[in-house]
Amino acid sequence: MRHIHKQFPGVRALENVSFDLRPGEVHCLVGENGAGKSTLIKILAGALRQDQGSILLAGRELTEHSPAQAHRLGIGIIYQDFKLVPELSVAENILLGREPVRFFSFWVDFKKMRAQAVALLAQIGEKIEVRARVATLSVAQRQIVEIAKALSQHARILVLDEPTAALTGTETKNLFTLLHKLKAEGAGIIYISHRLEEIFEIGDRLTVLRDGQVVHTGEVRAADRRRLIHWMVGRELENEYPRIELQRGPALLRVENLSNQHLHGITFTLHQGEILGLAGLVGAGRTELARAIFGADAVQQGKIFLAEKEIHPASPRAAIALGLGLLTEDRNRYGLIMAMSVRENISLANLRAVCRGAFIQKKEERNIAGHYAGELRIKTPSTEQKVETLSGGNRQKVVLARWLFTKSKVLIFDEPTAGIDAGAKYEIYQLINQLAQNGIGVMIISSDLPELLGICSRIAVMRAGRMAGILTRAEFSQERIMALATGTAEGV
Q1: How far apart are CA 35 and CA 209, in angstroms?
Q2: What is the rounded radius of gyration, in angstroms, for the C-alpha atoms of the chain?
Q3: Residue 470: its pLDDT value, please?
Q4: Listed residue (465, 455, 459) closest to 479, CA to CA
Q5: What predicted TM-score, i.e. pTM, was given to this entire model?
Q6: CB atoms within 10 A of CB 357
Q7: What CA–CA distance (Å, rounded) separates 26 from 207?
Q8: 3-state class of 460 per DSSP?
Q9: What is the C-alpha to C-alpha distance for residues 269 and 120, in angstroms, rounded to an integer?
Q10: What is the pLDDT of residues 45-70, one digit of tens each?
């Protein structure tokens, strides 16, 4: 890709960007959210057209480039925002548009299609029921389906945008084994990730974008973590995990013997001004615990207390009214209405506050949205901008602004920095610290152990729907968390 320029209304997305990919290499594309990575990839995929510049494949310039042409040329893209059809099965999604048909007919050969889907999943080392509807899958499972779909295209150029954001360590290891195999077969791989340790593990070369421009291209082995962060954000981050001393107050949220079909006798206390981490392997019940507290899943047994008063949130609406907020793991699907503006998304959970009778007071709504956009430093040309145009970090800030507007007493973050760059992560951590400092009780569910170790006051570890142990800062270590999560150590 040579001298690529792309301008959107009020935004310069790319300026004179050149990027090349060789056969048999992993070229990592890194940068903050909004740096231009996704725009560059969409141009390569034919989903966007560049204003200036050219794309050459094996020396031949691509003209009138389109997604159909990209597919024919063997360019496979795994987007960060899943491109799956929820109501179709796993097998139908994996082979969508490439369905095998019966001999001399136009009828889909479903038996053959399911067999091919099973074989593709086996390449990644995964087993998912190929008849299951995608709508019933977890975020991690949907990510695996996306990877299998790209493999089915036999791509000579494979682009992966945050492929491990929802994957476990084992799933990530399986993916890397597959990428090494594809690389050995001569495929060129463009790898985008905000998990910097992955860049150093899988990458051969890297290109860093900042504000739509290339600031560095070179060998991965010639870089280090500190230098890479500096290239990305344009400044030094003295500490990736800003910590402040928090004054722990009285018990704010208390859960006693909470049980349902996923949870078994969960007991813990969250204090005012505390950041409580929730660790565990996929399937441990962390998200299910958050959903039960938030009234999204039924509670069969146990009690929930808020400020020492027993509560019974029978629905998310009731939980919101009580002062609970949940920032979901899949913010694009469950946390935001993508076609709505920043303003509308911020006021969504507290419309009564901006209504007079049956009518929304748009001026008051704009003022509130503008206040939170400024306070949280949401990068957007206007609060009238559709949320779908924002970067991952700024979308997360919009969700946070919504819960701040509801005056939540307890905020539960489920994977708060998944798919977010180092600079935006730092800002999110600072905001979380500020929330705790202001007396809000914060719970953080995260698969990123360094993140939990870096910002939490205590870490609760779950295993198989049960509380395996709760660690204080003096007891923190990745090894101890994993021992509790896997059942190889006694609980604390």
Answers
A1: 6
A2: 23
A3: 95
A4: 459
A5: 0.62
A6: 5
A7: 11
A8: strand
A9: 44
A10: 999 999 999 999 999 999 889 988 99
Enter the tokens of residue 220: 């991965």
| Token digits of residue 465 | 């729907």
Beta-carbon-side half-sphere exposure of residue 136 (alpha carbons within 13 Å): 9
Read off the pLDDT of residues 165-179 as tens digits, 9 standing for 90 and up.
767 777 788 888 888
E strands present in 1-93: 2-8, 11-17, 26-31, 52-54, 56-57, 60-61, 75-78
Arithmetic mean of pLDDT, 5-17? 86
Tokens representing residue 437 in the block:
């400092």
Q: What token pair was written down for 383?
A: 């609060």
Do residues 91 and 136 lie in contact, with contact meaning Cβ atoms separated by under 8 Å?
A: no
- Model confidence over 192-237: pLDDT tens digits? 988 888 999 999 999 999 889 999 999 999 998 888 888 887 765 5
* Structural tokens at position 198: 């992955």
Q: Which residues, including other chains, have CB under 8 Å from residue 338's CB and lie 6 or more apart?
A: 332, 386, 387, 388
Label residue 491 by pLDDT band (50, 70, 90): very low
Tell me the C-alpha distance between 361 and 213, whole Å.
41
What does the block give as tokens for 106?
Answer: 């136009």
All residues at 6 or more sequence positions from 311 whose CB lies less than 8 Å from its CB, including other chains: 304, 305, 322
Query: For 331-448, where are the alpha helices, taking DSSP H only?
Result: 342-347, 362-375, 392-405, 422-437
Residue with the larger pLDDT of the pair 86 and 246: 86
